[in-house]
Amino acid sequence: MLNNAKWISYPTMPSGYEAINLKKDFCTNDVKKATLKITSLGCYYATINDKRVGDFILAPGCTSVKRVQMQTYDVTKLLDTNNTIIVTLALDWFKGRINSKNTLEKPDWYQALICELEITHKNGEKEFIYSDKSWLASMSKVRFADIYDGEHYDALFNEEYVPCAEFDYPREMIVNQQGEKIVEHEVIAPHKIFKTPKGETVLDFNQNLTGYFEFKVNAKAGDKVSFSFAEVLDSDGNFYTENYRTAKSEFEYICKDGENVYKPRLTFYGFRYIRVNAFPCEITEKSINAIVLHSDIKRTGYLNSSSPLLNKLFSNIIWGQKGNFLDIPTDCPQRDERMGWTGDAQVFIRTATYNYDVERFFEKWLRDMRLDQFKDGSLPHVVPQYWSDEKPSAAWGDAITICPYQIYLTYGNKKILKEMYPGMCKYVAFMGRDSDRKYLWTGGVHHFGDWLGMDAPAGSYKGSSRMDYIASVFYYYSTVLTVKVGKILGKNVAKYEKLAANILKAIRKTFTEYTTQTECVLALYFGIAEDKKATADKLAKMIKDNGTRLQTGFVGTPYLLHALSQNGYSELAYDLLLQEAFPSWLYSVKQGATTIWEHWDGVNDKGEFWSKDMNSFNHYAYGSVADWVYGVGCGIQTVEDKPGFEEIVIAPVPTKKLDHLSAKIETRQGLVSSAWYKEGESFRYEITTPVNATIIIDGKTYNVTKGSYVF
Ligand code: BGC
Q1: What is the model's pTM?
Q2: Average confidence (pLDDT) over 142-152
Q3: Measured from the CB, is residue 620 less than 6 Å from ligand 1?
């Protein structure tokens, strides 16, 4: 790919995070069609004759460093007789702070461009312009750009061009664009501009979001614009950035004379508030808008209820997904992480696939997972792999089995199973080898456990559920999924079937008691518990003894309500869903959350923060509860042997605690919806299915063909 073009860059490596420009002037005429094929190491921002090429923000996207995606743009309308193409490059995901340990073989690689412009003239003749030594290079007016630290732009900086340098980087790493591009979405005006008790000027956009902003100001040359970003105010109402940890997340701009209109080119921010550190005049609602960025995924799922608090939770889940689906599924979009944490993605994927069409998005990320899987079958904590050699944690590494299987269930995609199956087998083998006891996964010290569980001992992030138990259960679950996938692909899975049976036996023999909420939840949901009733009773008692409140962390929470409703405790599941006291989903809503918090206790009821260093206010993991609302509350379920909603089971579970609950999912087969309304002592159900469905209401089964039904 791009065989005649050369990798080019600035002749010497910039000393810090300065962006560079690569430029080519050329003349042409009688253009019928012009196509630009382009990619880079580092992110690029390209213009032709000062007009932006395409709408992909932070192209070429975030991938394993072993590959880069190439974009193809139709640029016919941008061309004139005399043309200038300028491509600005920043290290960003390739080798910026987020990936300072880039594991490529050559540590001195830095931002570089490769591209080809194909011009077809009206007479049918073709002309090509390739990136090569004839291009010029300069340091850019973007004086600084980094994913974590933000952007500095100096409109007065003189971009002095010198001949560029060619580099001998490989071409085999170039692949066609696979994921969804990141594009601009909502434009949001400031909701409020106010002064904090400290006297600082702060803009409130009333929504925690991921993106950037555009401002407009008339200024004198040399005037400064400077912004900082925050998700929350502290208990005194002051601007608070400590939870961003080392991410500077700042914006600096030096104005030119006259009108200045600007939005950042090579970074993004996670924020609800902007502090105005400097602005040439008084800032007003007209001076600035926030612009939401996320991958161009299509919304497919909608939840609604009679409870305003619950509806706000649903909205927060959607915003959590938008804010963290920026080319890869990230843990959070603001502090010095923003990484493709495998566990978080695994926890949230069921919800993610209903809310949005994320098939392509996950296909790309899973391909990176395969590329970055270690030779011994283990997996990095984060994909793309930004750290060198850690061992995977149970429930994090299992993203390699759980995520592809969910993409198959929701979209009927077998291709991804085929691609990932060898990796699944290797991961299962790794878990077996990493254990000090046969058929269990024990002895590992590298697990995150029930991360952020409320039953964590003081000073620890890890809930009290036993690591060896969690690890063994996920060893079992991943083996079961490997069997399922192997069968779908027509493989001989006898070995894995036997392994799964042996693991189950060993777990049952070794872990005879379940000591925490999460341990009970896993025992129920994964079919470990032999006496389901006793285990469910125990779980229910633990919850009630705790004031009808959960204690689960990342591992237990996604399955908590399922474990209850599958075992006769639907009302208790609703009690937890509707609980408003801490810790609960609605607690954060009542505290004013506009996204999902990382920690149940992000802000306690005195308005204090639970921690400085692990306290994101935009962490989608606990938003995974939406999957229960779609699948149980409203009862819309995929059928394992008819994936992609080819057939549907709809088995709503209503409660008198709500007047109404409804879900709609735009599936590949058409719209499926399920709503129920409390009417006196009973319920009215309205159901629409695009395909044959089994509807189960009040224990009665109705086999229906496509259509709309009222019960
Ligand atoms: C991340 C998580 C992640 C965890 C691993 C955190 O720093 O933000 O969401 O899963 O580390 O335990």
Answers
A1: 0.97
A2: 97
A3: no
